[in-house]
Predict the structure.
Amino acid sequence: MTTRFDPWSAEFVAHPYEVYAELRAGAPAAYHEATGSWLVPRHAEVGALLRDRRLGRAYTHRFSHQEFGRTPPDPAHEPFHTLNDHGLLDLEAPDHTRIRRLVAKAFTPRMVEGLRPTVARLADELVDGLLAEGGGDLISAVAEPLPVAVIAELLGVPAADRTLLRPWSAAITGMFEPSPTPEAARQAVAASTEFSDYLRGLIRARRAAPGPDLVSALIAAQEDGGRLSEQEMVSTCALLLNAGHEATVNTTGNGWWALFRNPGQLALLRGDVDGLLPGAIEELLRYDTPLQMFTRWVLEDIELGGATVPRGSRLALLFGSANRDPARFAEPDRLDLTRTDNPHISFGAGIHFCLGAPLARLELTESYGALLRRVPNLTLLREPAWQPGYVIRGLTELLVTP
């Protein structure tokens, strides 16, 4: 097929939505040779395929690499795959079912809600810092440190070690892009090794002296006599950092950039923070979703719009396109903070729906709330640039003044 879809192009990363509209006007799925994937751009198909058990995030629970027609991963990347492949995001039943139940016993709604005072305090402290500096980069000053600090509190990471977390997360998620460069792979492998070693040490410490943190709760969680293995705990903690952190950072940056480009909506929100903020968070997640693409493997031949997609194919579910689909959203290219019919899929769907969604919503609510209430005249200094990554899409910086 001929398309302007190009995840390696800075121009496309900055402006993907016109290309998405062209894709939605075509077939429900179309093969894209450069990425070796079938692109799925519409909300209906994306939502259905996220729940379709003929697909999987992995295939090795049913097939060898050779049986599936795929080349085994580079052995040099083993530390990354060990860390990534034991996490909920890349597991299928029955392992996914077992682990999610155990993690849910530890990572409870009550635990998340109990973090609210801490998240609110951290958000206020970061906004204080931004004000004390007379402005600066909203991403490095508020968006990045908040979720890192929250995850560190959740896991019980000592304050002196918290500067390690963000670089590890950034390096590991670089492997989620289509065809990562050798250097990106090297950095991801190194970060996977270092983070895994760190978490194993933390687990040993909590076995010896349990605390009120998530690591201690994961150690204690059991069902029918079963417990999480050490690797499963390591991978769960890494996933909470990598997936939750990157989503929160980029929803903050992308969302504020959207608000600055829509001053009428920003003024509306400033006029009724308490009433509009919960719905505004959902609209900002829809409007410029931080996770633009989610891949799944075809485990059995399927039909999509009259085309046969054979077993062994990879589907690229385009979340950013689905969230702008006019067949599901009224005026989808318009930012509408009062939107009520908003079934966005920014947190996914089906068994891989984001486990950390309640925590992400809490962090976003407290972050936006602190800025809106305490810096009512927050102003953008200049148009920002986009990072080169496409799958996890965010800004390099967002310079503001109070």
Remarks:
- The beta strands are 30-32, 37-40, 55-56, 136-137, 293-298, 302-304, 307-309, 314-318, 379-380, 399-401.
- The first helix runs from residue 10 to 14.
- The mean pLDDT is 94.
- Residues 99 and 144 are 29 Å apart (CA to CA).
